[in-house]
TrEMBL record:
GO terms assigned for molecular function: methyltransferase activity
Keyword Transferase among record annotations: yes
InterPro entries named among the record's database cross-references: Methyltransf_11, SAM-dependent_MTases_sf
Domain Methyltransferase type: 22-122
Designated name of the protein: Methyltransferase domain-containing protein
Keywords assigned by UniProt, alphabetized: Methyltransferase, Transferase
């Protein structure tokens, strides 16, 4: 996903430009720190106290030049309008958050308002059109059969969450003046790997395969996750 995001940023903004990035639901800050290391000014928003504490610790371990490019805000991603003015950011990230939001459209609309004209909105969501893949590939035939007709599922943390369908999110982005510019699949072949699986010796080859599949039909359509990139008009 990071490679996909970098591709979109490189294709939209001049090389060397320091971008204003908002990362909503930043978790432990891996993506925010990666972008800060690349020279961008990053603001991270996270509601969970444990997660934002871990992010603060991670930022504190960075050199001063990187630390000063990162701002952390504890808050709900649905309240971005309380903290920031419309049009304040060039790039807005919302990765692995919408599955925890019962009504995602207001959140996505609020994120789009944070973008300057021409800004990039990056969403990472659970693929509602491929929910049967994980149980099916695991031999859970009853679970696979049930997954065809729903966008609800139980994640690896044991939480009941929801998925998004590509067509519905495309319509949402059109309706908020940030139409879909590009989309990718994420975790096409690796979704059934165990969380504690050892790092493979041929990691670069694995990543090359996933990157190729994530931009190629029909593979991307059955990925566990979808990475959607909209552009503010």
């Amino acid at each position: 996903m990071a490679r996909q995001l970098d591709e979109q940023i490189a294709g939209r903004f001049p090389v060397g430009r320091r971008l204003r990035v908002l990362d909503v639901g930043m978790g432990r800050g891996a993506q925010a720190l990666r972008l800060a290391r690349l020279g961008h000014q990053v603001t991270g928003v996270e509601q969970d106290a444990t997660m934002i504490a871990a992010a603060r610790e991670a930022v504190a371990r960075e050199p001063e030049g990187i630390r000063e490019r990162v701002r952390l805000v504890q808050g709900d991603g649905r309240d971005t309008g309380v903290h920031f003015l419309p049009g304040s950011f060039d790039v807005v990230l919302c990765h692995a958050v919408l599955m925890y939001v019962e009504e995602p459209d207001p959140l996505v609309a609020g994120l789009a308002r944070m973008l300057a004209p021409g800004g990039l909105l990056s969403l990472l969501v659970r693929n509602g059109d491929a929910l049967a893949m994980r149980p099916g590939l695991s031999g859970d035939w009853a679970g696979a059969l049930a997954a065809f007709d729903t966008t609800a599922y139980r994640n690896r943390l044991g939480r009941d969450v929801r998925a998004d369908r590509l067509a519905a999110l495309t319509a949402t982005l059109d309706g908020i003046a940030a139409p879909l510019h590009a989309w990718y699949g994420v975790r096409v072949f690796t979704d059934t790997a165990a969380d504690d699986a050892a790092m493979p010796d041929d990691l670069e080859t694995l990543l090359a395969v996933e990157e190729r599949a994530g931009r190629t039909d029909p593979y991307r359509g059955v990925a566990a996750l979808l990475h959607l990139c909209g552009v503010r008009g």
